[in-house]
Amino acid sequence: MKMKKVIAAAAAVMIGGVLAGCSAGGGGGGGDGADASNCTNKITKTDAPVVTLWAWYPNMETVVDNFNKQHDDVQVCWTNAGAGGAEYDKFQTAITAGTGAPDVVMVEADRIPTFQVQKGLVDISKYGYEDVKANFSEGAWKDVSVGDGIYGAPIDGGPMAMIYRKDVFDKYKVTPPTTWAEFETAAQKVKDAGGPVFADFAANQAAFVTALLYQTGEDLFTYDPANGGEIGINLNGPGAKKVLDYWAGLVSKGLVGTADQFTPEYIAGVIGGDYATYLSAAWAPGYLQGAGVGEGADAGVWKTAPLPQWDVNSPVQVNWGGSAFSVTSQAKDPALAAKVAFGVYADDASLTEGWKNQIIFPLNVNALNNPEFINLKVDFFDGQEANKEVYIPAANAYKGMTYTPIGQYYYSAMTKQVAAINDGSATGSEAADALQKDVVQYATEQGFTVK
């Protein structure tokens, strides 16, 4: 593989930024780790070696304190280096410079291969993975794997479902569809009766569209760095064309909207009843509540149901989102750093605090098997036991995705093609063919062998 090209490509998809170092202390510390007094959290066991950590969840200080209280052999020095792209910026700079990275870094699963191909992350399969393997599902581990290596400890995920407005469904006498054919029939019925569009097919949510493509059971990518930089790309197979043609049909019939999501305008539409459903992940209720959905006039109207299937006899559960803790190649003691990666956000107190007070959906089976979590009556869903009925079964059945180092370019290319579908300049099949050609050309230019 032409590694310089791959590194340049990975850097190109990151937003430019300035490195923000993380402090370290004791016998640990990654990169240019400095005095532990610079940690955001307070370390009380000052004789223990310290592992530095970058992570952005709002409750990380509580989580780190929980870990530190339970360990005399290692302490965590936590810094919030920014959320998502802001942190990736800093980490990318540290990888390029060869210094300045923490021991452990929080990353979304789809970013792991990008950093792994630059030798920025460590395979932690030999540092205690077998001891914690049973704590997560097959799908959770696949999402943080690159080839045969494990490059992250799972934290949370986004099993997908269909959030819907019960008031709209009741008014137009439709029931939650179990198949995509039923989904279209219900959407047409609501439209014919003068109701709102049934959902939204947003060009700016490539990860969401990717999840829909995986639901046909076809793999979009294959990738194993042991195979000399070979990538399998299958973006215009029968499954992908089936999905994109389906959604292109919904768009052309005016059954779904095409607004960009995660915008004030879109949220205003959700609150205003412009959409009968919101196809999203298990973290969506927390996000929607934080944006003001479910208050006032639309309080108590939201419910959730399993994501419609192509074949109810062969259901495929899919995922949107999820993060992990990865050990960086600049960690001075990878084994100790892996202990932190596997152990942070893994104790019962942190897991419980996470799902009660944050918007995360934990993947640890200790949470998924917790009766309190299983039987939780979710206020946003008017007391529905959403975890038991929808999200936990979806999480348990999820088999994982294959991510690649060209994932961020693929997302950009997908965004362009969904926009073409939405403005009527391409059919679903045409968009799939254009997407395949674009991504294959890019991968080849970056030195990968496409099969």
TrEMBL record:
Keyword Signal applies: yes
Pfam families linked: SBP_bac_1
Keyword Protease in annotation: no
Signal sequence range: 1-20
Domain of life from the UniProt record: Bacteria
Keywords: Signal
SUPFAM superfamilies: Periplasmic binding protein-like II
Alphabetized InterPro entries for the sequence: Bact_solute-bd_prot1 (IPR050490), SBP (IPR006059)
Protein name: Sugar ABC transporter substrate-binding protein
Lineage of source species: Bacteria, Bacillati, Actinomycetota, Actinomycetes, Micrococcales
